[in-house]
Amino acid sequence: MTTYEAVIGLEVHVQLATRSKLFCSCSTEFGCPPNENVCEVCAAMPGALPILNRQAVRFAALVGLALDCRINSPSLFARKNYFYPDLPPGYQISQFELPLCEGGHVDIPGDGGGVKRVGITRIHMENDAGKNIHLPERGCSHVDLNRAGTPLVEIVSEPDMGSADEAVAYLRTLYGVVTYLGVCDGNMEEGSFRCDANVSVRPVGESRLGTRTELKNLNSFRNVHRAIEFEILRQRDLCEDGGTVVQETRLYDVVRNVTTSMRSKEEAHDYRYFPDPDLLPVIVPEGELEELRASLPEMPQARLGRFATLTGLPVADLEVLVQSRALADFFEKAAGLADPRKVANMMLGPLMRECHATGAKTGDPASWAMTPEAVAQLVGLVDKGTISAKIANDIFPELFRSGEMPESHVAAKGLGQISDAGALERAVDAVIAANASEVEAYRGGKRKVLSFLVGQVMRQTQGKANPAIVNELFARKLGDPS
Length: 482
Ligand code: ADP
Ligand code: MG
Ligand code: ZN
Known about the structure:
Blueprint: E1 4-15, H1 54-66, E2 70-71, E3 78-81, E4 91-94, E5 101-109, E6 115-127, E7 131-135, E8 140-144, E9 151-157, H2 164-181, E10 193-203, E11 213-218, H3 221-240, E12 248-253, E13 258-264, E14 274-275, H4 286-294, H5 300-311, H6 315-318, H7 325-335, H8 340-358, H9 372-383, H10 389-402, H11 406-413, H12 421-434, H13 436-443, H14 449-460, H15 467-478
Parallel strand pairs: 11-12
Antiparallel strand pairs: 1-9, 1-10, 2-5, 3-4, 3-14, 5-6, 6-9, 7-8, 10-11, 12-13
The site of adenosine-5'-diphosphate has 16 residues, from strand 1, strand 9 and strand 10.
């Protein structure tokens, strides 16, 4: 029987985090009362003329540079004509023949375990449409134009991915790039980062592409994965039963976990693209491009590699720390003040646990009370033997919530480790006297009993005894077991 492989290409829409819209000075703020941020340009009054937002072009070019694209100068804006109530002019302003960026690539973790390179066909700029708000109970629909004119880039990939896992790995990598660049707020619920997935299957060994379907408006990594997975199986079953895939647009139904047909190729739009006569060709001067290139921050993957070297911990464990640029900065700050590996372990363990326990955002350290200095200081206190690792763990939740510095907290609560040999010796003696049979067993060769005895001293001192000194005391008093 023929075996089939999947082929996936993605179109990702990224909302650029400019304060004003692409062709007018209206605010892009989300969640305002309907039609508050609307002017003659975004409402398409006759004679109103668009003026290009310079910052949006800079942001779009940054994305292109980060993905190793060629930046076209000039690039052209074109009208993409179609009718829809949320699109007052009757066309979207997009780029067609000459997009801003072309021919890049991005490296992702592939299914085989190695690195996989996914080609970027093009990145073009365009404006978003408004929103139709349907009110069935009132038998009407309203149009909200607040979003109309919001700047977007569409990142179009080559059909280079072979599974839902690779598609999601690609998306996550892109997400990391645009949020590290600071050109997108990354808010997927608000639609700031959304994608359409093109899926086809073909017999293994075949080089021509199969007929594709396009899955629309997938707004979470999870839904992208599930929709693609479903669609691959559907097409595979269809082909194995001797059927053929029809080129069409399909919608993912989250509740039923299926994709259903929305419109076929025959009903597909003919957009009649042509260069927008209201807008000049866009030139990005070489000097400005150089300046943008020089401002590119270190990307998540590169940072991850560096953190692995710094800590000696596996890349897979450290991924959590590069989920946002702010969190990676937080780690780097703390790791510069204390043992990096111990800082990483404290952040991956107790700190992430507290985030989840309190509902704090793991990627947004600015919203926490705890500072990188506090994390480093706590690591330092354990390292110096001022407090035990157990105490550090115990007080972590309080420190996380209050933002208090560990040193003053430990001093105020008298949690300092007992390293005073006299006090510890008395405790060790008491444990030896109270556990005659265990001591006997130890002397008879049962070395494991030692950890029980040390544990007893810990209990008596509420975990504050310095374990190294306690161990040393037992060794001296009980000798080496025969
Ligand atoms: P359109 O703009 O009509 O959606 P494009 O040619 O721009 O068409 O392709 C859009 C996306 O579809 C690209 O990401 C591309 O890689 C992907 N794609 C094209 N053909 C296939 C196919 N046969 N199987 C999977 N993906 C495909
Ligand atoms: Mg498409
Ligand atoms: Zn406007």
